Amino acid sequence: MQNLEAHDLQFKIHALLQFRYVDPRLVFREVAPNRTKPIMGEQSLRDLLWVPHVFLANERSSDILGTAEKDILTSISPDGTVIVSTRISATLYCWMNLQKFPFDEQHCSTVLESWMYNEDDLVLLWEHKSPVTLAPELHLTEYVLLEMFTNETVINADLSDLRHGAFAGNYSSLSFTVHLAREMGFYMMDYFIPSIMLVAISWVTFWLQADQSAPRITLGTSTMLTFITLASAQGKTLPKVSYIKASEIWFLGCTGFIFGSLVEFAFVNTIWRRKRNVEVKKVNSKHVLKQAITPRPARKDMSGLHKSHSCTSLADSATTVSANSFNNYLTVHSIPQKSPSSATLPIISTTDVDRTVPDNPVTIQIEGQTSNVNGNGWTTMTPQEVAIWIDKRSRFVFPIAFVIFNIFYWTFVYYV
């Protein structure tokens, strides 16, 4: 037996096929009482005898081995027992189920059927002792033989079945089936371990700063292309079937994690380039991601504010404004006093941006106000802080999610 060829759904055998039956017309014990040894011959003797016409029902092609003379040996015993031995080479179909590839187990059969004699004329039976013997040197590189069993049955042929020359009837059939399990060493070393390494390499991008577009894009795209090449090389050895295989689930899952790291970079890079700060109620995943996805500017309506003053032209009158200068605006919100005893006059200092040297800062004093630093319980985060916060969380979320994916995957392939 040779290894199964999954892309063609077939396997090859080299077999010694022996038929044994008794033909009363060939008894020569009374004719030659002194002859105790059987009559031996090759194909020429076989052509003179009646031999049951048996064919391989699931064959793709078959040949009788031999060059000038076919390897056919015929033996006739004195009691009329005929043994016909033939060395054959055959390519047989094996309708594999590849849903759990490469963790699959296959049952491949060799089916022998009578061609023209139905069950009324010919019945095929296996020998009671050792009907099928495997060569002791048999070794399959990709599979391990778990068991082998034989079967005897009757095939009902009608006019729609052309295997028997469109003659309806019940035909005797023999089959032996080998139960094979695929070895995992090759696929672990060539596909699964490299896949895990490529997915882990794609996580390196989380340790690079969000504005480093060139290295992060190069790392993500090269990892994705390498993984697609690895997956396509494995897919070329399999037939194009309509159902999803276990290997495809693995490759789709790994592709999703690599693609997710690319999407995460695009997301944090977009946040990094924003100009406005955002305020979050709490620094946790829910509020930070909500503000990152739907950004809103910092809150202006702080609790208790009821009046604002606007001040312009902060520079003194002696300052000469340059041709490309712009006005400075400062809005100071008034905060109600908690008590008359705590009233203070806050002092706000600013400088004119048009000045090269801010030697005369402008001081503004507003009456009836007290100082309060963000007393509403919200936290202000810059876009860069939000991007770094997401990258740090991704360093843990992606590996944990990949471990969970592996737990479900290997549980499915080994226990389901």
From TrEMBL:
<feature type="transmembrane region" description="Helical">
    <location>
        <begin position="249"/>
        <end position="272"/>
    </location>
</feature>
<keyword id="KW-0813">Transport</keyword>
<feature type="transmembrane region" description="Helical">
    <location>
        <begin position="396"/>
        <end position="415"/>
    </location>
</feature>
<dbReference type="GO" id="GO:0005254">
    <property type="term" value="F:chloride channel activity"/>
</dbReference>
<keyword id="KW-0472">Membrane</keyword>
<keyword id="KW-0812">Transmembrane</keyword>
<dbReference type="Pfam" id="PF02932">
    <property type="entry name" value="Neur_chan_memb"/>
</dbReference>
<dbReference type="GO" id="GO:0004888">
    <property type="term" value="F:transmembrane signaling receptor activity"/>
</dbReference>
<dbReference type="InterPro" id="IPR006028">
    <property type="entry name" value="GABAA/Glycine_rcpt"/>
</dbReference>
<dbReference type="GO" id="GO:0005230">
    <property type="term" value="F:extracellular ligand-gated monoatomic ion channel activity"/>
</dbReference>
<feature type="transmembrane region" description="Helical">
    <location>
        <begin position="191"/>
        <end position="210"/>
    </location>
</feature>
<keyword id="KW-0732">Signal</keyword>
<dbReference type="InterPro" id="IPR036734">
    <property type="entry name" value="Neur_chan_lig-bd_sf"/>
</dbReference>
<keyword id="KW-1071">Ligand-gated ion channel</keyword>
<dbReference type="GO" id="GO:0005886">
    <property type="term" value="C:plasma membrane"/>
</dbReference>
<dbReference type="InterPro" id="IPR006201">
    <property type="entry name" value="Neur_channel"/>
</dbReference>
<feature type="domain" description="Neurotransmitter-gated ion-channel transmembrane">
    <location>
        <begin position="192"/>
        <end position="410"/>
    </location>
</feature>
<keyword id="KW-0407">Ion channel</keyword>
<keyword id="KW-1133">Transmembrane helix</keyword>
<protein>
    <recommendedName>
        <fullName>pH-sensitive chloride channel 2</fullName>
    </recommendedName>
</protein>
<comment type="similarity">
    <text>Belongs to the ligand-gated ion channel (TC 1.A.9) family.</text>
</comment>
<keyword id="KW-1003">Cell membrane</keyword>
<dbReference type="InterPro" id="IPR018000">
    <property type="entry name" value="Neurotransmitter_ion_chnl_CS"/>
</dbReference>
<feature type="domain" description="Neurotransmitter-gated ion-channel ligand-binding">
    <location>
        <begin position="2"/>
        <end position="184"/>
    </location>
</feature>
<dbReference type="GO" id="GO:0099095">
    <property type="term" value="F:ligand-gated monoatomic anion channel activity"/>
</dbReference>
<dbReference type="InterPro" id="IPR006029">
    <property type="entry name" value="Neurotrans-gated_channel_TM"/>
</dbReference>
<keyword id="KW-0325">Glycoprotein</keyword>
<dbReference type="InterPro" id="IPR006202">
    <property type="entry name" value="Neur_chan_lig-bd"/>
</dbReference>
<dbReference type="InterPro" id="IPR038050">
    <property type="entry name" value="Neuro_actylchol_rec"/>
</dbReference>
<dbReference type="InterPro" id="IPR036719">
    <property type="entry name" value="Neuro-gated_channel_TM_sf"/>
</dbReference>
<keyword id="KW-0406">Ion transport</keyword>
<dbReference type="Pfam" id="PF02931">
    <property type="entry name" value="Neur_chan_LBD"/>
</dbReference>
